[in-house]
Amino acid sequence: MTLEPSNILLSKSFLVLEYFLSEYSSRTEIEDALSKIVPLAYSSQTPTDFTITCQLPQVLELALVCIPNNVSLQEILEVVSSFLAECLAYSQTPNTDRSFEALFEELPPIISQAISLQDEEVINSAKRAVDYIDAQASRFGYPIDSRTSVPWEKKALRSMFFSFCRSRILKHNDTNPGESVVPVLRKISGSPFWSEPLYEWIHGFYMPLVHLSRFIEIPPLSDFDSYLSTSEQIELILGTAIEKNAFTAVISDTLIPYLEHQPGLWNEFNQWLVRFGDKTINEPDTKKMATNYTVLLDLVRQDNLLRAISKNREVLDDFISILISTIYLCPKAILEVFVSAKEIIGSLRVFKLDQGVEGDALPSPQETVEKMYQLIRPTSAFLKSCEKAIETGQRLYGNELSLIEIVNLSTSDSSTQLSELQKFIDSESRYGKNSRQWETLLSSIYWIFNNTEIFNQVDSETLDEMIFTKLLDLKFFNIISNVFLAEFCQLPEDKSHSIIMKYAWMYYKRATNCNPDIGSLKFSLACVNLIGNETPDVAQLRNLIYANKALMNWKLSFKPGVPVTPKQILEIDEPYKVIYRILELNEGSYRNPDALFRLLKMLIMGLNCYDKRDIFKYADESDVGPEELNPMLADVKLTCLDFASTDDTDYAYNLSVELLGLAVDHKRKESPLFRVISDKWFSFFQFVKNEIEGSPSIEMIDRKLRILGELILVTPAEFNIPVLEQWQLMNAQKGQLSNEAKGDQNSAAHTSTNTPEIPGTYNFFESSGLGDLRSRLQTSLKTSASDILNSADSADIGRNIIGRIVGAK
């Protein structure tokens, strides 16, 4: 095999330089060796197929691999920078007197012996060295282009310096992973071969990964770039931000500069977003799914990220479409997701997008985010529609409807919409405890109804009625009055009136006691108070409730040991039954006729039973006059008289005198008051006929005679005879007692002449205002009963008797 001398020379030069660089005895020695190779490198610019060229790229490759790692990076970079500066100077004024053979002078024995071998062995040895060095250089990303002729121009030398610096930094990182080279880079930034690509690589690759290494242990930089695909690199970066919850630091210091360093990486970022979106919508764990949407929110909260994305319109459109697709395809109703989604959309609205068409709807849902986002064209109007849909989803959270289901609800039939609306109202009402909360809830409900098409098959009156009944069910009467009726309800007055009264009667019938301050009766009264106008039905129920309250002053039951309930009162067909029962069960209750009268009035009005008795028409006092002249009050007092006549003669007497006096005063006026008392003449008669316990006194008999005297004037004519006969009987009894009293007085005259006279008949008549009625009555009694009976028919008997009594001389 014939060997070209130049190949032998190149091989020997390569091996000698390799030796000096590998040994690196001193910086001076290395600089001297590199300086001696300059003429050879300059003369070797001619392209060749031989692998050993000693051209500048191969010399730098040799320095990259061979200079030991214990040499400081700064020194290495300075040495290389000086070498390139010398090359540049040499190229401008080549010195033909300089010989590269100086490289071989005064060589150490070991290398001297190596290059003294046979030429073939030297060349093979050099080739093996080249293969090894190429392999090592490739590992650190150094371009293997040693066979390529490179012009000795500053631009080309800067490019070579960049390649060397990048690879040497990667090599340095392999052995010193925790050491930052930033200080070194600052110091060499003044090198004439410092270039923009080197600056961009440092700030777009090295520095971002240095920042990332603060959070996790990353692979050596050489492996990161060589063994991780672009998608894996982005996954590592964003995975760190998520795992360490360090979005601001990782995105600003690592992700953004890293993506901007290489063209096309923003599309890779969007593809990561697509994969993350598909992973999210298929996540079976609800909590993890919500967390993933929080991650998306954390991304859009990074203003630096949004500004960087907005530089590329295509990337921005895809970014927005992917986020919307991930939100739209969420298969579950998760409150945290709605909250995050709402903020995400709000953040996206800062971008200047095309206006679009108002009401732009979401397209039909697809199976994956990958397919979905390609159908979306983001515009301002579209984002507004999305925001409204998300707002609706958040407000309808209790219905457990996904965003897709909510959007589809607008095309459902009325029954489905009504069902979901009722479910919505039921779920929302669980959170309302006071007026402020309910105002918020109602605002939410009506916002959906008025601002979306979700419930387009339901009219506003139906919504009002549904909410009204729910609030009445919940017994939130203050909220109904102060919030719902005042701010939201648009129901016609008659409709709201009907709903309220329905609930008022329902609560009344549910009541188990008569106290309107507690329980269902309280709720019934609260319903009534919601109605501003005192309509007849309102007045009826209000009176019935107040009647129940009045009943609390008495013992009352219709079954032994079972207290009366409001419902039992409602079912009573005769209010007087209540009055009778009170008088039966409550001792002395007859002494409160006024209270019983008021109770009776309320019962009559509350039960609306004016037609049960003719007297009940006087329950409404508007046309009656003073209460004391109300015929129904007199009727109640007469009932009390019946109960008092046997137990409480003093009270019965006073009540009788009161009632008979009223009757006599109104006899000639033909008033209803007179007729009521006259019709109950027997109550007085029965009281007079009741036996007096013990020996009767003249005073007691005088009382009864007074009652009989006035009763004769009140009693219907056909019943005067028994009254008169009783009067005669009582008068005779009084006479007997008077005679007995006189005999006793005569026998005791010698004891005391000052004994006071026992009140007699004359005193009674004088005090009663009847004058000499007694004497006239005595004269009248001389006429036989047969004369009286024969003097007139039965209808005139009473009047004839009265006439004879009053007119007797």
**Basic shape:** rod-shaped
Mean pLDDT: 85
Major sheet details = none
Strand content: under 5%
**What is the radius of gyration computed over CA atoms, rounded to a whole number of angstroms?**
59 Å
Keywords: Endoplasmic reticulum, Protein transport, Transport
Biased composition (Polar residues): 738-756
Protein name: DEKNAAC100053
Subcellular location: Endoplasmic reticulum
Briefly summarize what is shown.
With 809 residues, the protein is an all-alpha fold. It has 40 helices and no strands.
Topology readout:
Blueprint lengths: L4 H19 L3 H17 L12 H11 L6 H20 L16 H6 L4 H21 L14 H22 L6 H7 L7 H17 L8 H7 L2 H14 L3 H15 L3 H17 L4 H15 L2 H7 L3 H16 L6 H14 L20 H4 L7 H16 L7 H7 L4 H16 L5 H17 L8 H15 L2 H12 L4 H18 L8 H11 L6 H16 L14 H6 L3 H11 L7 H15 L23 H14 L4 H17 L6 H8 L1 H9 L8 H17 L5 H28 L13 H8 L4 H9 L3 H6 L3 H14 L2
Helix pairs in contact: 1-2, 1-3, 1-6, 2-4, 3-6, 3-7, 4-7, 4-8, 7-9, 9-12, 11-12, 11-13, 13-14, 13-16, 14-17, 16-17, 17-19, 19-22, 21-23, 22-24, 23-24, 23-25, 25-26, 25-27, 26-27, 27-30, 29-30, 30-31, 31-32, 31-33, 31-34, 32-33, 32-35, 34-35, 35-36, 35-37, 38-40
